Amino acid sequence: MALQPAAGARDLIPQQVKKNQEITKRLAEVYKLWGYEEVSPPRIERLDTLTAGGGIANEDIVRLVADEPLGLRPELTASIARSACTRLKTRERPLRLWASGTTFESRVAAGGGIYIEENLQSGVELFGVKNISAELELLSLLLESLFKLEIDSSHKTKLLLGNTCLMDLVLENYEGKIRNKIKHNLIDYNKIGLEDLEIDIEKVNGLISILEMRGPASEIINKLKEKYGEEEPIRDLARLFKQLEPIAEEKGVILQLDPTFQPHFELYNGLVFQLVCEGKSSPVVIARGGRYDKLVASCGAKSSEAAGAGFSFSIDAIREQITTINKDILVDNNRTLITYGPQSSLEDAMVNQRELHKNGITAVLELDCCNTLEEARSLLPARNCQHIKWLNN
């Protein structure tokens, strides 16, 4: 039986690796233009950091056997927030950081077993800005990054936005268990669950109207104003969409507001969003993010600086969508095969290889002797080389 990688693990071939590197490079170029600095958070963290102040469930974390409670990071944000509040706490705010790396999530398989899902991510974090200015910068940067990736209009890319404060408005007249039931039914888009609740039918109909309140941003904001008035989160969303609409139109991105949208991880408190593409068979989330002030506070930040927001791209998901990356990037067209005949030796070939390497030329050794130049030339396709260096004296 052929050996397979562990369920959820990535086993990438060279072309996929090069494509990942090119995507990450393109994103990094945009981040740097906006003034973000690269950091490299550890893959292994203490569990109290990884749970992000209660925002990430223990069952989502891959635990390690060690003398202290450790695990593999399920995302990058919590580790970067910890660093921002410790090693970088004396840096001026706003603090702009970016990182890329592999994340690991514990998942339950269809048969009930546990497997580890491995993903490559790249994203940015902005610390120390409590007002809507952070979201204005981040979402503008998100759309600019998307443009750099050259994802074409055929993917019908959609930016889905919500706000945990909107959910708080919806639930403000409910408490205890009934509040939690309503919240879960709204998040899961469960009309039947709402209808089965032991509350007035008028209230049920009101909740269902909220459930169905999703679509073009300006339309939904007007409906929210009619229902809740000029609340701060609604004003902020109106300002945000005014900034984003011309950019999104230029990039061919659809903006959608959903008051009941909540992400899988509960580390966000404020704006939350996902960037979704139409994949070959189903929608694919290629980026997600939001505001996480409570997480920053749990890392020990002063109340005046306890603010954070960011997003991350899923590199593996993007790789499967992009077809426009130049093939010259993925294939090295300047590979030289160094071969030697009966009158020379592998040692001579290695001397020549070093000389080519000094000039930045990819040089691959043929480790076995070739009897003739014709025999050596015949190896070029199999060795994926375009040039040959023949030694036989």
Features:
2 domains; elongated; nine-stranded mixed beta sheet; 39% helix; 393 residues; BirA Bifunctional Protein, domain 2; three-stranded antiparallel beta sheet; alpha/beta
Question: What this model shows, in words?
Answer:
This protein has 393 residues and is an alpha/beta fold. It folds into two domains: 14-327, Bira Bifunctional Protein, Domain 2 (BirA Bifunctional Protein, domain 2), CATH 3.30.930; 332-391. It is 39% helix and 22% strand. The chain has helices spanning 14-33, 47-50, 77-85, 133-149, 164-171, 176-187, 191-195, 201-211, 217-228, 232-251, 293-298, 315-321, 327-330, 346-358, 373-377, and strands spanning 37-38, 44-46, 62-64, 70-72, 95-108, 114-127, 158-163, 215-216, 254-257, 271-278, 283-291, 308-314, 336-340, 363-365, 387-391. The strands form three sheets. Strands 1-5-6-12-11-10-7-9-8 form a nine-stranded mixed beta sheet. Strand 5 (95-108) and strand 6 form a beta hairpin. The longest helix is centred in the first third of the chain and has 20 residues, at 14-33.
Written as H for each helix and E for each strand, in order along the chain, the element string is HEEHEEHEEHEHHHHEHHEEEHEHHEHEHE
Enumerate the strands of the largest sheet in spatial order, edge to edge or round the barrel. Answer: 1-5-6-12-11-10-7-9-8
* Low-confidence sequence ranges: none
CATH topology of the largest domain: BirA Bifunctional Protein, domain 2
> What's the CATH C level of the largest domain?
Alpha Beta
Helix content: 25-40%
The whole-number mean of residue pLDDT values reads 88
What's the number of extended β-strand segments? 15
Strand content: 15-25%
Round the Cα radius of gyration to an integer and report it: 26 Å
Class based on secondary structure composition and strand pairing: alpha/beta
Shape: elongated
Please tally the helical runs, counting DSSP H or I stretches of 4 or more residues: 15
Largest sheet: 9 strands, mixed
Instruction: Please tell me the CATH architecture of the largest domain by its name.
Output: 2-Layer Sandwich
The CATH homologous superfamily of the largest domain is termed Bira Bifunctional Protein, Domain 2
Number of domains: 2
End-to-end Cα distance = 47 Å
